[in-house]
Amino acid sequence: MVADPHPRHQLDEVIQSPVRFSIMAALSSVGEAEFALVRDTVEVSDSTLSKQVSALEDAGYVKVRKGYVGKRPRTWLSLTGEGRTRFTGHLATLQAIANRVVEAPAD
Amino acid sequence: MTETSPQTPLDDATRLANTTRRAARWYANYLLAYAAGTVLLAMLIGIAPGRLGVGIGMICWLALLIGLTLYQRKQQAKIKRFATLHLIVIMTWASMWVITVMAGSYFYPGDLSWWLPAGIGTALPALIGAIVVYRATR
């Protein structure tokens, strides 16, 4: 048993992917964001975003809502309560790792 | 710090969150326009009591609501707890507006010294809402 395990063990594997991390970050500050805004903010293609959002939806971290504005279909993305909690925890873990790097600089 | 530093994703997260947060700021403008429209409508009714003032006021109000609806439809992000905040603002506004119009029409018809401060008072829920949104999206 390790007395003080490295905080990296607490990182969320679903969010560790850079694109999924970016999607979660983009959604973390709003209640809801349109698919196109997230795509442009994260700088990925439609298909990449769709694929990664599906993975986050399957994990229960992101909610997808489809609707229409006039005749134009629009897709809205938001973090679930679980997703928000997991992302906050993931950021806290990253911060803990960053603090360790500062405390113990390489020779 | 190198590219692989754990600080890098934290900085990225802040940058991405700020981008979408700013996209949700439109609702502050929406509420400011709503507040300004409320004051204008109250003044119109105050300056020209009766059918003329109410008629012109209603046309202006309808135009404002159509404009705001079109503006809202173009937006790509909503602040957290948008529905709750919107409901609180609109319900508070509606309650105050009913009191303002009923009291003003009965006791102060054509009296701008009532309608102007009453209009400003009625606009307060939207103004406060705009400040809340602006602070939340800074």
Q: What can you see in these coordinates?
A:
The complex is a heterodimer of chains A (107) and B (138). In chain A, strands 1-3-2 form a three-stranded antiparallel sheet. Helices cover 55% and strands 18% of the residues of chain A. Chain A has helices at 13-16, 18-28, 35-42, 46-58, 81-103; strands at 32-34, 62-69, 72-79. Chain A contains five helices and three strands. Chain A has 107 residues and is of the alpha+beta class. Chain B has 138 residues and is an all-alpha fold. Chain B contains five helices and one strand, in the order H-H-H-E-H-H. Chain B is elongated and about 70 Å long. Helix content of chain B is 82%, strand content 1%. The two termini of chain B are 27 Å apart. Classes of the chains: A alpha+beta (107), B mainly alpha (138).
Topology:
The complex is a heterodimer of chains A (107) and B (138).
Chain A: H1 13-16, H2 18-28, E1 32-34, H3 35-42, H4 46-58, E2 62-69, E3 72-79, H5 81-103
Antiparallel strand pairs in A: 1-3, 2-3
Helix pairs in contact in A: 2-3
Chain B: H1 7-23, H2 26-47, H3 51-73, E1 77-78, H4 82-107, H5 112-136
Unreliable stretches of chain B, pLDDT < 50, 5 or more residues?
none
Low confidence ranges of chain A: none
Proportion of residues in extended strands of chain A: 15-25%
Beta fraction of the residues of chain B?
under 5%
Instruction: Name the overall outline of chain A.
Output: elongated
Order of helices and strands of chain B: HHHEHH
Strand order of the largest sheet of chain A: 1-3-2
- The Cα radius of gyration of chain A reads 16 Å
The tally of beta strands of chain B, per DSSP, is 1
Terminal Cα span of chain B: 27 Å
Indicate the structural class of chain B. Answer: mainly alpha
